């Protein structure tokens, strides 16, 4: 099922198997038939670890979504709540338990906290008078979830907000724990580099945990040579920019959740001749997106302008393969053709799907609105007129364009100008509040606190120096046959990935001045390997670096790291880990506040 997790340099299936084993052990603690009540947010991440078949093998007969009121009747021996440690969920669980007690059913209750137990939550259950109803209260440590052969995510949606707005370091503790789990399975990582306050905290926690477990060191030859911890706030610009890779655009326009995307169904309808169009499907088309699908693995990281050519090339190969059937004369040849049919049919259906997706995206990327927006972004990135009110933003506000679009652009202008001049800052603030409502003052304050939208304090703008030193803007980026990571944004090279690239060669000492201009400390730590465990590198063998983004990473950044892994002379292979897979919209949304209901 998860073969694509073991194709890469690091077999991430080991991590998935460890998570599955723990889940089985917990389910077996609850003898007899079971119903699981899910915290809805967890169903996606859990789907990547265990399908329903695994749960069924362990006597799970029913599954419900956690919601207030009575539980549907289940007629099982055990009811297990799978929940995040959130106080508001405890109140719903209490309601569920009371309603079940009223039925006088002799059911056993269990609760599984993901990823950690919480004293506060248990206290809340006690106050509600239901704590004693639970036979098992346990935790299921699901920190890092394998999303693909080179990608791990914690899917911790509030990590950036907690770190930068609420000064809450819970996500950093989970990160450190996740990295310790990783080292238990893949060996100690000898070198740790980091940039940013959060990176420093995580490294400190890891080193402390390692000292505490000094006696239980595992004798595993290290798989990773280096760990690079990067704070999202070291590079606030990249997530604000519109991603221009195929996968990045799917996420920008439709949103990818736990490896799936939901798309408008019209393009996927199989129209038969003379059929009335009124029977078109209304359910969104749900596609799974990962490298298990050959075609998707091939085109996901390409700049969108190179996808059309790749699809038509694939179409020619597939139709040539089907034409081969006319040449099959002998029984042996026919047999061979028939054995290849399932693979060819899967390839044809995959091509049809991605051609439809590409058409949907093209409708948007060829629109005037998309082009105008992109032009403004690229002007800001190259330092054009970042210190005055932008007429495009002003017009977009007066036309009441979506607020998130406005916030992304205004934040981008602020980041590229090291803050906005007070007059410009006040103008945008006033226009946004008058047009979209004064309740958004909380959101604007949050963006200011996170460093995304702020008045200029000193007149010195470091961004041009950073841009020139790190070559963040490359004129004439080659989108078809890229030779530099800047192809993922058609000219802009993500700052986070340039830092990663420079660290590998020639090293951060060469950019010491720029590192000082970016927020937070930069550091290097070495971890002692257990005696006798020294990795002897084979001639020409690549080094493996785990790059961990604290606060989120975009698909375009992931594409840029994959590009670096594939470069002939890089000598480096990258595995990517993050607290959350993000894009500019989901990121800004996580920082928004609505007075009537707290942020998402």
UniProtKB/TrEMBL annotation:
<dbReference type="InterPro" id="IPR001619">
    <property type="entry name" value="Sec1-like"/>
</dbReference>
<dbReference type="GO" id="GO:0031902">
    <property type="term" value="C:late endosome membrane"/>
</dbReference>
<keyword id="KW-0472">Membrane</keyword>
<dbReference type="GO" id="GO:0005769">
    <property type="term" value="C:early endosome"/>
</dbReference>
<dbReference type="GO" id="GO:0005765">
    <property type="term" value="C:lysosomal membrane"/>
</dbReference>
<dbReference type="GO" id="GO:0005776">
    <property type="term" value="C:autophagosome"/>
</dbReference>
<dbReference type="InterPro" id="IPR027482">
    <property type="entry name" value="Sec1-like_dom2"/>
</dbReference>
<dbReference type="InterPro" id="IPR036045">
    <property type="entry name" value="Sec1-like_sf"/>
</dbReference>
<keyword id="KW-0968">Cytoplasmic vesicle</keyword>
<keyword id="KW-0813">Transport</keyword>
<keyword id="KW-0653">Protein transport</keyword>
<dbReference type="GO" id="GO:0016192">
    <property type="term" value="P:vesicle-mediated transport"/>
</dbReference>
<comment type="similarity">
    <text>Belongs to the STXBP/unc-18/SEC1 family.</text>
</comment>
<comment type="function">
    <text>Plays a role in vesicle-mediated protein trafficking to lysosomal compartments including the endocytic membrane transport and autophagic pathways. Believed to act as a core component of the putative HOPS and CORVET endosomal tethering complexes which are proposed to be involved in the Rab5-to-Rab7 endosome conversion probably implicating MON1A/B, and via binding SNAREs and SNARE complexes to mediate tethering and docking events during SNARE-mediated membrane fusion.</text>
</comment>
<dbReference type="Pfam" id="PF00995">
    <property type="entry name" value="Sec1"/>
</dbReference>
<dbReference type="GO" id="GO:0030136">
    <property type="term" value="C:clathrin-coated vesicle"/>
</dbReference>
<dbReference type="InterPro" id="IPR043154">
    <property type="entry name" value="Sec-1-like_dom1"/>
</dbReference>
<dbReference type="InterPro" id="IPR043127">
    <property type="entry name" value="Sec-1-like_dom3a"/>
</dbReference>
<dbReference type="GO" id="GO:0015031">
    <property type="term" value="P:protein transport"/>
</dbReference>
<keyword id="KW-0458">Lysosome</keyword>
<dbReference type="InterPro" id="IPR043155">
    <property type="entry name" value="VPS33_dom3b"/>
</dbReference>
<protein>
    <recommendedName>
        <fullName>Vacuolar protein sorting-associated protein 33A</fullName>
    </recommendedName>
</protein>
<keyword id="KW-0967">Endosome</keyword>
């Amino acid at each position: 099922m998860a073969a694509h997790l073991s194709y890469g340099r690091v077999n991430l299936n080991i991590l998935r198997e460890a998570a599955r084993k723990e889940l089985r052990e917990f389910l077996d603690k609850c003898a007899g038939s079971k119903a699981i009540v899910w915290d809805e947010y967890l169903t996606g991440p859990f789907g990547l670890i265990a399908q329903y078949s695994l749960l069924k093998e362990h006597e799970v007969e029913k599954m419900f979504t956690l919601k207030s009121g009575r539980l549907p009747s289940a007629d099982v021996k055990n009811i297990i709540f799978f929940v995040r440690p959130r106080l508001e969920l405890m109140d719903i669980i209490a309601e569920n338990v009371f309603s079940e007690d009223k039925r006088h059913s002799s059911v056993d209750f269990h609760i599984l906290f993901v990823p950690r137990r919480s004293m506060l939550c248990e206290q809340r259950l006690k106050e509600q008078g239901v704590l004693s109803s639970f036979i098992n209260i346990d935790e299921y440590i699901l920190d890092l979830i394998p999303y693909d052969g080179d990608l791990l995510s914690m899917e911790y949606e509030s990590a950036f907000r907690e770190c930068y707005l609420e000064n809450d370091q819970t996500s950093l503790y989970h990160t450190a724990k996740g990295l310790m789990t990783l080292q238990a399975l893949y060996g100690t990582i000898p070198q740790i580099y980091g940039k940013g306050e959060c990176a420093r905290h995580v490294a400190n926690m890891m080193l402390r945990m390692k000292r505490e477990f000094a006696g239980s060191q595992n004798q595993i030859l290290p798989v990773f040579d280096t760990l690079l911890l990067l704070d999202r706030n070291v590079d606030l610009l990249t997530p604000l920019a519109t991603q221009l890779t195929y996968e990045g655009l799917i996420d920008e326009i439709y949103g990818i959740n736990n490896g799936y995307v939901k798309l408008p169904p019209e393009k996927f309808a199989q129209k038969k001749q003379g059929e009335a169009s009124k029977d078109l499907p209304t359910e969104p088309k749900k596609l799974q997106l990962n490298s298990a699908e050959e075609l998707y693995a091939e085109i996901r990281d390409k700049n969108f302008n190179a996808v059309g050519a790749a699809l038509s090339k694939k179409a020619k190969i597939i139709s040539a393969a089907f034409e081969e059937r006319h040449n099959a004369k002998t029984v042996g040849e026919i047999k061979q053709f028939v054995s290849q049919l399932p693979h060819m049919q899967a390839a044809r259906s995959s091509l049809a799907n991605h051609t439809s997706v590409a058409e949907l995206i093209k409708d948007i990327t060829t629109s005037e609105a998309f082009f105008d927006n992109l032009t403004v972004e690229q002007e800001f990135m190259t330092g054009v007129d970042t210190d005055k009110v932008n007429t495009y933003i002003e017009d977009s506000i007066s036309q009441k364009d979506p607020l998130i679009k406005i916030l992304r652009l205004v934040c981008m202008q602020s980041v590229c100008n090291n803050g906005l001049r007070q007059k410009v800052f006040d103008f945008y603030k006033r226009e946004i509040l008058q047009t979209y409502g004064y309740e958004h003052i909380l959101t604007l304050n949050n963006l200011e606190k996170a460093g995304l939208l702020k008045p200029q304090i000193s007149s010195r703008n470091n961004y041009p120096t950073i841009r020139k030193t790190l070559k963040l803007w490359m004129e004439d980026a080659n989108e078809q046959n890229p030779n530099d990571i800047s192809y993922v944004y058609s000219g802009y090279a993500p700052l986070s990935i340039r830092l990663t690239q420079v660290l590998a060669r020639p090293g951060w000492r060469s950019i010491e001045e720029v590192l000082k201009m970016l927020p937070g400390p930069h550091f290097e730590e070495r971890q002692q390997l257990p005696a006798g465990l020294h990795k002897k590198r084979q001639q020409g063998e690549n080094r493996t670096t785990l790059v961990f983004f604290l606060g989120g990473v975009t698909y375009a950044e992931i594409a840029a790291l994959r590009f670096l892994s594939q470069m002939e002379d890089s000598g480096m292979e990258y595995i990517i880990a993050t607290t959350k897979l993000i894009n500019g919209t989901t990121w800004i949304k996580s920082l928004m506040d609505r007075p009537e209901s707290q942020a998402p």
